[in-house]
Amino acid sequence: MRAVVLYEPGRAEVIDRADPVPGRGDVIVEVSGAGLCGTDVHIFEGLFPPTPYPIVPGHEFAGRVVAVGAEVDGLDEGEFAAADCTLTCGRCRYCRSGRYNLCLGWGAIGDTVDGAFAEYVSVPAVNVFRWPEHLPESWTPLTEPLACVVRGAERLGSVAGISVLVVGGGVIGALAGKLMRASGATRVDLCERGEVRRTRAADWADTTFDDVARTDEASYEAVVDATGSIAAIEAGIARLAPGGRYLLLGVAPADAVAGFSPYELFKRELTLLGSMSKRYSFQPALDLLHRGAIDLHSLVDQPLPLESYVDAVERVARGEGMKTVLAPDAG
Amino acid sequence: MRAVVLYEPGRAEVIDRADPVPGRGDVIVEVSGAGLCGTDVHIFEGLFPPTPYPIVPGHEFAGRVVAVGAEVDGLDEGEFAAADCTLTCGRCRYCRSGRYNLCLGWGAIGDTVDGAFAEYVSVPAVNVFRWPEHLPESWTPLTEPLACVVRGAERLGSVAGISVLVVGGGVIGALAGKLMRASGATRVDLCERGEVRRTRAADWADTTFDDVARTDEASYEAVVDATGSIAAIEAGIARLAPGGRYLLLGVAPADAVAGFSPYELFKRELTLLGSMSKRYSFQPALDLLHRGAIDLHSLVDQPLPLESYVDAVERVARGEGMKTVLAPDAG
Amino acid sequence: MRAVVLYEPGRAEVIDRADPVPGRGDVIVEVSGAGLCGTDVHIFEGLFPPTPYPIVPGHEFAGRVVAVGAEVDGLDEGEFAAADCTLTCGRCRYCRSGRYNLCLGWGAIGDTVDGAFAEYVSVPAVNVFRWPEHLPESWTPLTEPLACVVRGAERLGSVAGISVLVVGGGVIGALAGKLMRASGATRVDLCERGEVRRTRAADWADTTFDDVARTDEASYEAVVDATGSIAAIEAGIARLAPGGRYLLLGVAPADAVAGFSPYELFKRELTLLGSMSKRYSFQPALDLLHRGAIDLHSLVDQPLPLESYVDAVERVARGEGMKTVLAPDAG
Amino acid sequence: MRAVVLYEPGRAEVIDRADPVPGRGDVIVEVSGAGLCGTDVHIFEGLFPPTPYPIVPGHEFAGRVVAVGAEVDGLDEGEFAAADCTLTCGRCRYCRSGRYNLCLGWGAIGDTVDGAFAEYVSVPAVNVFRWPEHLPESWTPLTEPLACVVRGAERLGSVAGISVLVVGGGVIGALAGKLMRASGATRVDLCERGEVRRTRAADWADTTFDDVARTDEASYEAVVDATGSIAAIEAGIARLAPGGRYLLLGVAPADAVAGFSPYELFKRELTLLGSMSKRYSFQPALDLLHRGAIDLHSLVDQPLPLESYVDAVERVARGEGMKTVLAPDAG
Ligand SMILES: NC(=O)c1ccc[n+]([C@@H]2O[C@H](COP(=O)([O-])OP(=O)(O)OC[C@H]3O[C@@H](n4cnc5c(N)ncnc54)[C@H](OP(=O)(O)O)[C@@H]3O)[C@@H](O)[C@H]2O)c1
Ligand SMILES: NC(=O)c1ccc[n+]([C@@H]2O[C@H](COP(=O)([O-])OP(=O)(O)OC[C@H]3O[C@@H](n4cnc5c(N)ncnc54)[C@H](OP(=O)(O)O)[C@@H]3O)[C@@H](O)[C@H]2O)c1
Ligand SMILES: NC(=O)c1ccc[n+]([C@@H]2O[C@H](COP(=O)([O-])OP(=O)(O)OC[C@H]3O[C@@H](n4cnc5c(N)ncnc54)[C@H](OP(=O)(O)O)[C@@H]3O)[C@@H](O)[C@H]2O)c1
Ligand SMILES: NC(=O)c1ccc[n+]([C@@H]2O[C@H](COP(=O)([O-])OP(=O)(O)OC[C@H]3O[C@@H](n4cnc5c(N)ncnc54)[C@H](OP(=O)(O)O)[C@@H]3O)[C@@H](O)[C@H]2O)c1
Ligand SMILES: [Zn+2]
Ligand SMILES: [Zn+2]
Ligand SMILES: [Zn+2]
Ligand SMILES: [Zn+2]
Q: Which cofactor does it need (chains A, B, C, D) (predicted)?
């Protein structure tokens, strides 16, 4: 099969290599498309510590099941499915308390073992989720980021009847905005610097701003960060009304420090919440799509061939377009 | 002023009596309209124990503030406002824990003191809420029942992404259905016997049934009862899928007993929740209306004159129409 | 090895059979002791539908790891461990939402595959939990029931500062009472018919009653059923004060019906909660023991030899003693 | 009566002035003792903006009811009671949503109107809570701070079975530590610089440290700040284990900024919670005392006469002793 191999940070090639064969509990998925996100940029740059090189990256993917391991039940060849990339140890303190996104032995297909920028990829059967037939296949790479946002929404709690500010209008911000709307928020505004992205938010944002500073201080009952930028985080926290809740989805640099006012945290009884990856949210994400609560049309870009891997990484790094996808049969 | 006086159960008259004058902390509201609900039927029949007779009934109301007590701040004559009828002692164990709907000294304007089936009514200033200008005045009598449903929804918890069955398609069922939709439920079905009411649910129900028995057992993640009927309650509980949550809004007779399977409660880890009146939900109800999350057009009937009080009570008892309203200047 | 084999309901024998060998992901545990509970009575009587016969029963157990499968990491021979008997499919809707106790493919060591009334038992490595060294080995069979009670307590929510009535003073009731105490309940009373058991509750119960009817109606903020008896459940619900929460741990017969007053559920805003087995609560149960929050001395009985299996089942059925345990090396 | 009058920041005197007479809904309390806290230091220094001068300070108090307003029901002369100092508008968005501690018109007896460093003080009847007879009167001034800590604990959520670090061993830290213990935390450690205060924590702290830096990073499931110091807050947040929850009780200077790592907030899924004053927690605080869950002996100091007001303020500012109290009949 053809596969992108990243030999070491910055050095990648599309090569031919042996097709994977399924382990006892695994299935082989013929990849229809695999998305890229900021983690792919970090893996390419050597800034995602758990990654071993060489590796085939690609962790947001779907495709048809073409082979099934000996011990796999209830999953047949021919089925079209989305895959949850998460690999957990099952035995650490966090796995055993159901907080598997905090697993001490965390790994992920495409991040710590070979992934989906390839024609085929091997996946544990438990990571495979039947894709709702009537939905467009082009939406599949958005299931994984949507699952992250669903986890974030669970952390945030009910938004029914309240006003929400989303900061950052990339894929994560857009998914968060759509989910807030679908969960009963009665006002959802967006701060995003890029004009194109503000325009692409027309189907969910009430009002868009190009700068957090243009929104009123202390005026939102919930604020969601989808930037990871320190300036945006500091400004976002200051938008919280008394009793307000802040959800941090954005991933800041590991050594960056943001300032907040402990006096305001106390005085306004604020709540600041981090949310990390997915937790029991892959199936709910599929359900939301299945039942029509969230529409992804505005977030899908034209897929690129595997050969465009480096360009695709750069496109994501520049914040261009929305969900960038590589497809083995594209172009 | 003209007022409906219910001298004793079953004996009412519209008479002329002195206009109320505001106590120090009260305002006088010129009633624009006041709704009826099942409680009004009970009060008419002498089946609502806390009611003293004679009384002017009418507890779901709004109107213009025409006089303001000496110690009232920040509320001016001329303002149009909806009123929360609830009167609490402020000092019992429940009031002091914020559970004021469980107040040991509970009372209500129109239920335990003179109410709004009259041209004017006296209301404590703290019970008066500014009505959002751009909303139709005809919606005002629905604020109170919506506030009850908002409390119920708080009891139920998040419905984002789940399927809900509403049993009973009167005003309460319809408000519950609309609120579930606006809170992100991805499927909301209705069971209601009356064909007219099933039709009036077209703007919120996915599927309607004329009998709970026609829905699948163990298939809804949440079920809301808005009937108070024992048969409907028993059937409704049996619709809960594993992990399901049941919200009882309906008021059953005080001595009626419903059967449930403790084995299923255990095995499916069900949750059964009662919800009683409003709790901090009057303003949220107004906010939901204000922000456009809930539209009440389909629930409003033509107001009737005060003289139609007995007819109106009977109409409600028969389950006719949706929100029945008396307006001093109707007809 | 020697093992109890239950050939069919009611017909058991201790026989010699081949020692188990570990599957790739399994370990072999040399059983130090295995407890019995009501489920063992049902399995013996043929009333636990998922059980296939012949089977080696025994699902509450611990022991030393004596062999380790080829793919097992981080678990060594010689380690003393308690085992969680739960086997789940990992792929059903419930597993994937973290509600694995509701798994559609649920199974358990000792209930649906061979268990621990034997010298050795095979266990998936992920089901094995290191036993805190300084704790008495005699407590090990109580970890599983404690984990069930911890799940129940999670369902119930905070009991800090409130009054709780526990109905039923067997092992489950006693564990629930001890946990309520350790979680800050400021009053914990017990209803239990058996005098011996009331006496054994001296280390945790404030007041004991021999009949629910002797406690005040509507006077407890939380009630926990640990009987499964319909009469006790009905009486228990009636003890709830306004705003009260009811936790059903007891397992009633599958076709039994209990009556409750929907009017009171509404009027007092009650909450009724079922709790089914364990969910992420095995490790927390061990932690509570490890940290000294719960002491099990009063619940441990003298272990019996495997040959006493039928007597032990009958002892449990009669509600005699507290935790009945079979140990291969006993007596 | 004799009363401390603070004419302007820094200038106080004990003078004779007319006894208060009760308004219609008020009672007069003969003060038995009134505590001081950091707010009293700020009021003395002119750093508590809502304070009007001259004022009689004193907001943590109790005493005997000696006169009762015309409209007060169910509260008799002679009763001994603790008072909640909080005065709210009842009509703002926050009051109406039950979040009265965030009231836009917030006031407090002793902070914004005359308080309890006097022989008598006027108090709205709804602010008066019957003191449990069998408890020592010397504990009364601790009810108010305990109510603040109970509110904080509600924000924090269940601590049953987890490890908690309390930072700051003054009255607030000690009350928080005792409450964590009584709520089932299985380990409660204290960081406090002062040796005397570390010693006085012997009845509740497992281990004490003189510096947060001496505790392990990322090792506590919950951390409670009771210092308001920026250094302590920054160090405290860094002690949170993955999934950990941080409760900020300490009041930092209004313009101070603390740094935190957004990456860790995300990666460890942390939760940071501010808690502001009391909310429905005065009665629960009394209940915890009444039922014996919390013992206050170790926190009570010898009361001082009114004439010691300035000394008492300085004592509090220096962090000396535990609860400093002024009593009209002391000395
Ligand atoms: N929590 C999780 O589980 C999870 C999962 C996936 C992704 N993430 C994280 O979520 C964040 C968003 O992901 P993404 O894929 O949507 O990234 P993205 O495409 O980089 O989008 C971020 C957007 O935020 C905008 N932005 C940055 N600073 C801003 C500011 N101060 N004011 C307004 N807009 C600002 C950016 O505009 P410019 O391009 O003009 O700067 C960009 O459009 C990333 O940090 C990512 O790592 C988290
Ligand atoms: N919890 C609270 O705070 C609160 C507040 C307000 C009202 N309520 C209660 O909520 C309930 C509903 O109020 P509402 O004003 O909407 O009353 P309603 O107009 O009487 O509506 C109830 C509807 O339920 C239908 N129904 C009765 N049994 C049924 C069954 N077995 N299957 C299907 N439909 C059935 C009735 O149809 P038919 O007419 O054909 O029987 C009727 O259309 C009442 O019990 C009321 O007292 C509670
Ligand atoms: N939810 C779960 O995950 C879970 C897990 C394990 C067990 N369970 C269930 O929990 C229940 C208790 O288990 P267990 O092992 O403790 O059982 P047990 O030994 O049978 O204890 C039950 C106790 O309740 C007493 N009792 C029965 N009816 C009573 C009444 N009306 N008033 C007062 N006391 C009454 C019994 O006394 P007499 O003997 O005199 O009748 C007996 O002492 C069982 O139903 C069991 O199946 C549930
Ligand atoms: N949230 C609320 O509703 C509420 C209510 C009441 C009070 N408060 C606030 O809670 C805080 C505590 O009140 P309190 O009456 O207990 O105050 P306190 O008597 O000043 O106690 C604070 C303690 O923290 C210690 N401390 C300060 N920095 C420390 C550090 N870096 N490491 C270890 N210990 C440190 C202090 O020791 P040193 O004296 O040696 O510095 C002092 O013993 C105050 O900020 C107060 O304003 C909040
Ligand atoms: Zn793990
Ligand atoms: Zn009350
Ligand atoms: Zn399963
Ligand atoms: Zn207010």
A: Zn(2+)
Q: Say which of D94, D101, D248 has its CB closest to residue A265.
A: D248
Surrounding ion ligand 5 within 5 Å at CB are A 88-89, 92, 95, 103, 105
Which architecture characterizes domain D2-136+300-326 according to CATH? Alpha-Beta Complex (3.90)
Q: Which CATH class is domain C149-274?
A: alpha beta
Closest residue by Cα to residue B301 from B267, B330, B263, B281: B330
> What is chain B's pLDDT, residue by residue, as a tens digit (331 residues)?
999 999 999 999 999 999 999 999 999 999 999 999 999 999 999 999 999 999 999 999 999 999 999 999 889 999 999 999 999 999 999 999 999 999 999 999 999 999 999 999 999 999 999 999 899 999 999 999 999 999 999 999 999 999 999 999 999 999 999 999 999 999 999 999 999 999 999 999 999 999 999 999 899 999 999 999 999 999 999 999 999 999 999 999 999 999 999 999 999 999 999 999 999 999 999 999 999 999 999 999 999 999 999 999 999 999 999 999 999 999 7
| Ligand 4 pocket by Cβ (under 6 Å) | A 266; D 37-38, 145, 148, 167-173, 191-194, 197, 212, 226-229, 231-232, 249-251, 275-277, 319
Tens-place pLDDT, residues D84-136: 999 999 999 999 999 999 999 999 999 999 999 999 999 999 999 999 989 99
Residues B285, B153: contact at Cβ < 8 Å? no
Q: List, for residues D176-207, the tens digit of each pLDDT value.
A: 999 999 999 999 999 999 999 999 999 999 99
- Rounded to the nearest 10 degrees, the angle between the axes of helix B143-156 and helix B171-182 is 50
Residue A227 Cα to ligand 1 midpoint, Å, equals: 3
Q: Among candidates B138, B224, B236, B234, which has minimal Cα distance to B176? A: B224
CB D76 within 8 A of CB D15: no
Helix H segments across chain D?
38-45, 143-156, 171-182, 195-200, 230-237, 262-267, 282-290, 309-317
Pairing state between β D163-167 and D187-191: parallel
Verify whether the Cβ–Cβ distance D269 to A94 is below 8 Å.
Answer: no
Dihedrals phi, psi of A97, to nearest 5 degrees: -105, 10
> Which residue out of B95, B96, B282 would a mutagenesis test of the D interface target, given it has the greatest number of D Cβ atoms within 10 Å?
B96
Q: Is B141 in the pocket of ligand 2 (CB under 6 A)?
A: no
Chain B positions in Cβ-Cβ contact with residue D96 (cut-off 8 Å): 129, 280, 282-283
Helices (H), chain A: 38-45, 143-156, 171-182, 195-200, 230-237, 262-267, 282-290, 309-317
Is any ligand 2 atom within 6 A of the Cβ of residue B35? no
Distance of alpha carbon B226 from alpha carbon B233, whole angstroms: 9
Q: How far is the CA of B85 from the centre of ligand 6 (A)?
A: 15
The helix or strand, by DSSP H or E, that contains position C199, with its residue range, turns out to be helix C195-200
Prediction ipTM score: 0.96
Retrieve residue A147's tokens. 């699952």
Question: Touching B: which chains, 3+ CB pairs < 8 A?
Answer: A, C, D
Q: Mind telling me how many Å the CA of A288 is from chain B's nearest CA? A: 6
Query: For C283, which of A74, A97, A280 is closest by C-beta distance?
Result: A97
Contact list, C48 vs chain B (CB under 8 Å): none
In this structure, the residue with its CA closest to atom 33 of ligand 2 is: B192
The reply to whether ligand 3 has any atom less than 6 angstroms from the CB of C166 is no
Measure CB to CB from residue B265 to each of C248, C268, C269 and give the nearest one: C248
Burial class (CB in 10 A: 0-12, 13-18, 19+), B134: exposed
CATH 3.90.180.10 residue ranges for chain B: 2-136+300-326
Whether this model's pTM surpasses 0.80: yes
Domain with CATH 3.40.50.720 in chain A: 149-274
* Ligand 4 mean position, distance from CA D174 (Å): 10
